[in-house]
Structures are given as C-alpha cells and as structure tokens.
C-alpha cells in the first residue's frame, strides 16, 4: 500500500526506525523475575492462580484498547484490519474467543469462573497499569496507541517458551487450559508484522517516530508494572 505522505527529511529510514523499536526488547517482560520463576517451575498453584486472575484483567482490557484505536483512527484500511483483533478476543458469540480461552486457563489452574469475573484477586498495581494502557489508547494519537501494542513483536518466543515450560513443570494443568496460547501462537506473528507495517507507514516525521518508540517503552512498563504487583504480593507484600 502506498504511503500517504513522504518521509520528512529528518525522519529515520524504515529500517532504522524498526531497529529503534526492536532495540526496546530488553525492556520487555520476558526476563521479569516472576516470569523466570514461572518458566523454571518454581511457582506454587496459588501463585499461578494470582497470575491468571491478574492477567485476566489485562486480557479484558485489550479489546477495549483496540476499540479506542478504532474510534480515533480516520484511516478505513487500518480500521478494517484492526477490527479483527476485537473479534479475536471477544469472539462472535458468548463462549468463543480469546477471553473465553483465558477463562479456561484460569479454571485449569484452579480458579472458579466467578472469582475471575468479579476481579476479587486483581491487585491495585495491576489495575493502575492496565487502566493506564486503555487511557493511553483513548487519549493519544491513534498511531501511538498502535505502536504501544508492538510488544507483540517480542511476545511470540515468550509464549512458545511459556507453553513448553508450563507443560513440563506443571503437569497437573489440563491440556485444554493451554488453548489460549496455542490459538494465540497461530496469529501473533502476522499481527506483529502488520502492526509494524502500520506504524512505519504512518509515522512520517522524526517526532512521530520518537513518539512511537516512547509509546512502546510505555507499554513495556505497563506489562512490567502488572508483574511487579503480582510478584510483590507473592513475596508477602500487599499490593
Ligand atoms: O502472553 C504474553 O506474554 C502476551 C504478551 C502480550 C504483549 O506483549 O503485549 C500480549 C499477549 N500475550 C496477548 O495474548 C495478547 O492478546 C496481546 C494483545 C496485545 C496488545 O497490546 O494489543 N498484547 C498482547
């Protein structure tokens, strides 16, 4: 698809810009101490439940974040592609979609649907971090909100590793609990690529490119904030 506007003279080339975005990989949550303990099989069932219940709050926010992007985006091609993401999470009817699969994971680790849906285990730090992500998408230019979702570029390897390590270390989790990850792994590479394409195509000035890099850094912090809250609680803290 042709670019609507030429790159401004001070803008990074697409390759330089993409490299700047990818350079944020060390800020991603894959090396967070909580994730490391999860991968090493060192989490208790209680800690896995707390993680699943807090991640639920993130999962539920994603389609609302994507709907905010749709409402702010004047480009019909982007909107047409983006709306698929909402359907992926919400499904076309009750009992379908990524959110439903996450609930199945929560049940497989020992939570009842009721205690997930009423959010009784959601920690204040999780709420602040995730709500900030939705507010960011509502209030910032739509292309920055799209760029904030670029953590997905880094998520495929993490999810594949999580799936393998959870099957290995937590054999008591029934296989149907992993449907979210197996389904997600089927779409995440394509979604990540199309998100990069949109961001590169629509950030035409150096200022827009820098804002996109900052948006991705912000999102890495949102994710780390969520795990910080869970990790602190596991260590005996209260938030
Ligand atoms: O399991 C993970 O580590 C992980 C990470 C991320 C991410 O990096 O933002 C997402 C997901 N999963 C995910 O399942 C998902 O649907 C998703 C949507 C988004 C987003 O920002 O739009 N990130 C992620």
UniProtKB/TrEMBL annotation:
GO molecular-function term, one example from the UniProt record: pyrroloquinoline-quinone synthase activity
Pathway: Cofactor biosynthesis; thiamine diphosphate biosynthesis; Cofactor biosynthesis; pyrroloquinoline quinone biosynthesis
Keywords for this protein: Oxidoreductase, PQQ biosynthesis
Keyword Translocase: no
Origin: domain of life: Bacteria
Catalytic EC class: oxidoreductase
UniProt-listed HAMAP family: PQQ_syn_PqqC
Family: Belongs to the PqqC family.
PANTHER family: 4-AMINOBENZOATE SYNTHASE, PQQC-LIKE PROTEIN
Function: Ring cyclization and eight-electron oxidation of 3a-(2-amino-2-carboxyethyl)-4,5-dioxo-4,5,6,7,8,9-hexahydroquinoline-7,9-dicarboxylic-acid to PQQ.
Protein name: Pyrroloquinoline-quinone synthase
């Amino acid at each position: 698809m042709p670019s609507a506007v030429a790159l401004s003279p001070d803008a990074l080339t697409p390759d330089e810009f993409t490299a700047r975005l990818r350079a944020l990989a060390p800020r991603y949550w894959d090396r967070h101490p909580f994730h490391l303990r999860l991968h090493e099989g060192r989490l208790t069932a209680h800690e896995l439940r707390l993680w699943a219940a807090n991640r639920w709050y993130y999962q539920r926010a994603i389609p609302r974040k994507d709907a905010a992007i749709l409402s702010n985006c004047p480009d019909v091609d982007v909107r047409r592609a983006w709306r698929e993401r909402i359907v992926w999470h919400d499904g076309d009817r009750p009992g379908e979609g990524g959110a439903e699969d996450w609930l199945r994971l929560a049940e497989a680790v020992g939570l009842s649907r009721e205690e997930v849906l009423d959010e009784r285990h959601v920690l204040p730090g999780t709420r602040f971090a995730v709500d900030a992500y939705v507010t960011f998408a509502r209030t910032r230019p739509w292309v920055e909100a799209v760029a904030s979702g670029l953590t997905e570029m880094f998520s495929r390897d993490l999810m594949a590793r999580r799936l393998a390590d959870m099957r290995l270390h937590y054999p008591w989790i029934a296989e149907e609990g992993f449907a979210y990850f197996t389904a997600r792994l089927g779409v995440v590479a394509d979604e990540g690529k199309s998100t990069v394409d949109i961001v590169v195509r629509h950030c035409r000035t150096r200022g827009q490119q820098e804002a996109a890099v900052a948006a991705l850094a912000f999102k890495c912090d949102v994710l780390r904030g969520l795990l910080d809250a869970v990790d602190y609680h596991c260590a005996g803290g209260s938030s």
